[in-house]
Design a protein that fits this description.
heterodimer; A: 239 residues; mainly alpha; two-stranded antiparallel sheet; 2 strands; disordered C terminus; B: 777 residues; alpha/beta; N-terminal domain of TfIIb; Rossmann fold; seven-stranded mixed beta sheet; 31% helix
Amino acid sequence: MRKRLGIISFFVVIFIAFIVVWNYSYQQGLEEAYTPVIETPTGNFIPSERGVFLRFENSNLDYSNMPVDENHQRSLDDYYENRAYPGAPPSIPHPVKKERSLGGNTCIQCHQNGGFVEKFNAYAPVTPHPEMVNCRQCHVTKNTNTTFREFTFAKAEPPKIGEGVNNAMPGSPPMIPHQLQMRESCISCHAGPSAPKEIRVSHPERINCRQCHLPQTNKPLQRIDADAFLRQFDKLNEK
Amino acid sequence: MSMYESINGRRTFIKKMAMLSAMTAAASMFPGIVFASEQEKGIEDNGNLDWKKGPCRFCGVGCGILVGTENGKAVAVKGDPNSSVNKGLLCVKGYHQIMCIQSKDRLEHALVKKNGRYVKTPLNEALDIVANKMKSTIDTHGKDSVAMYTSGQSTIPEGYVASKLMKGAIGTNNLDCNARLCMASAVAGFLTTFGADEPMGCYEDIDHADYFVTWGNNMAEMHPVLFSRMLEQKSLRGAKIIDFATRTTRSSTASDRSILFEPQTDLAVANAICYEIIKNGWMNKSFVEKHCNFSKGITNMGYGLEDNYKFTDKPEKIDFEAYKEFLKDYSPEKVSKYSKVSVKDIKYLAAIYGDPNKKVVSFWCMGVNQHTRGTWMNNLIYNMHLLTGKISQPGNGPFSLTGQPSACGTAREVGTFTHKLPKGVVMNEKHRKLAAKIWKVPYERIPSKPTYHATEMFRAVDRGDIKFIWTQATNPLVSLPKTGRYRPAMEKESCFVVVSDVFPTPTSDVADVILPAAWHIEKSGLYGNSERRTQHWNKMVEAPGEATEDAWMFIEVAKRMGYGDLFPYSKENHVEEIYNEYKQFHEGAKHGMAPLEVLKKESGVIWPYVNGKSTQWRFNSKYDPACDNGEAFHFYGKPDGKAVIWQRPFEEAPEKPDNEYPFWLNTGRVVEHWHTGSMTRRIPVLHQAMPNAYVEFHPDDAKKLGIRNGESIKVSSRRGSCVLPASINERGLPTIGQVFVPFFDENMLINDVTIDAFCPISKEPDYKKCAVKVEKV
């Protein structure tokens, strides 16, 4: 009898719990759902501006807590090694899985968020433009080391780095010495384990990179004593 | 933080980090900040720099900076890790600010115009000329024929002596400042709703809020350090940023939701949000009953386009039912039709404000303030927070941002406006008596009637009513609206123009005397930022040539005019002496200022400073000792302790696009340049990144007009025109039917095109809306 009562009361408890849970979720369901209306007029985005924040939003990577593996990090020399000139799309330094594919899903598997690849004993570099899926439109594999004819193309010097080169004052934030087109997402190359060690940023958690770092590609930077903007101030010529 | 405090140079910091990394067994495995030894190569040894603290020279955020000096020259800047404003971070302008003072066209000597040419003159002689001219003008044409136009970049002591000289010594209210062009609507909003100026909360609100709603405010470029604090909360706690604007900007791309509206309809959308809050029962009834009144004012006020326009609001109490009835015109369905904001988006915004479990901070700056109904718009944002009781609590509150480093500290608190006194207004006899007592002048000398606000002041110059004007630390002939009228006005023989500045500007071009001013770190001073934080700094480097502190030039002129006994300050110590005198105005729990010793030690202190403690959230009895009604909240700015929920309708802009002028013109700033660019354009890094202004188009409009990027475009209105290169899909994206132009470029004066209509209550002009046409040239 006691046992039976116990069982019955057990089911009663379960049943009440069911009623409560069911009611609660029903009530929750009654709340008006909000689905954002996406009415995007053509081109309602700013290509040169949007990239900066994208990686922080679309990836769940915690860049500020990412370990650095000193034994497997890239150097800037490695970085320029497979580029024909600074700013050129890098060639693919490894065999590819599917020769016929655009790249897309295959490349993106490793190159969207990076990560260690046992086979190559290296971290996969992260692409700054994962939304462009026809990878092999620009990135080609290297299947021979020979050249068809001898050539005289001299690789231009990459932008210099280090204190006093890209920044105007001791300790002030360096300006951006390269083009931004297709490289708007700064942290792809400047943070994480695949970032070349010389250009890895000390503060990837800052997100709004271009609050402090501006593109400077036209002229070499000038130091304090240089003229920036001077008025043609004829009337002041007796100064 | 503690790690930062003990390390004083980036080099030592890097060294320590490098050492630390070598010491760590798994050398590779420590999170966060890692410097490879390669990064240290070639770093100059600047460990011996002398670092001195101060506030940043630029915007109203008021970041703490440390300036590194070497051999008497400023050579480096870094963020002050002790400042709770920016916690060591700055923006690109802040990092490079000191570079401008070494510009080759720096004004180092006084220049006096003789026979159409500027002649280098000893400062003493130039000040004689200024004092004599001011005195003789008063003698012939009366006190109200001389005027002074100062700045939200003037230090607190500078603003104070300007006010004392004009109102106390000379006895005229012809004193106004450029903060009229940026903050007047915020002030009028605070005074009409709360009876007390300046935000109730502080920047710490950012650390607690769940939602940030930015009203017409591109914070990623204009208040970048605060925006970074918001982004930090977004990644740490999942706080959301909602960007409500008329233009897609860097802030929109970083926000969780970007909602665009038709210019001027923010008034209607704000009312629609209130409508939804009440309709859905989201109103905090007990808060509203205990702490709020309802009022309405005069509508169809006009736009101040005609000279000598006058307006005084007549507030009238109403009841809740009347207010509810008024809101019926603002259902989301009705508003959606002309605001171009979808019903869903309006309801979405209302749900954010209405959700009692979510903390909301609203931020706004020029989009709301530079508005022909700017005061109303400020009132309406307060309405949303008052109806829901989301105010004066950590993470909950309306937050009005400022554009200038001491718009709050100097323009608003010292009161360099025509109607203001250091405490209160000239219309109030009690306030005049207090000022007269502290200034030691007969109280009858302070006139009880306000005279000219900024726009009207320059109109008076044009009409010939003002015959002497002295401007300091401001560049009105680039920053006023409709400069096409005011430039010729200032050139007229009828008005003697004195310009004090650090650099030559289009304003100094029309001066009769140019006085060389010391820049920020070349003098001691105090600034007050948007969160009521007063910040003191000591002189860090010597000014070049005869460049002198503005405050001292005022004092010298006052002495020459025979008011020496009212200005008994010493050259070495005048900043301290003036501050200690000024402090008396604000004594008490409602506005007490911190003593100098504290300000010298701390990286800024928030007022009211009571019993050695800052008041971070005013009007909340938990934090604010001035609350004494026994309730949780006390809006003690109003006599009955209640804040006002204002009934403010939607009204059209004074000028709308039509067949002849089919585009809206919006103007503003970019991250690289600050205001008229007289400082930032002289910083090579910034000039090279943004060498000139441009006119932004929506790609669809550009396509329709066949305009390509970089082509020369003439933008013209009924008032003037300006030629600029087109910019399509670059920094920002205006809505279809709108163009945007930044105003920093003195070679492309967009303010020749803008309209000098203003908010009748605050008298602040609207730089964000007028009608223009565009054509290729």
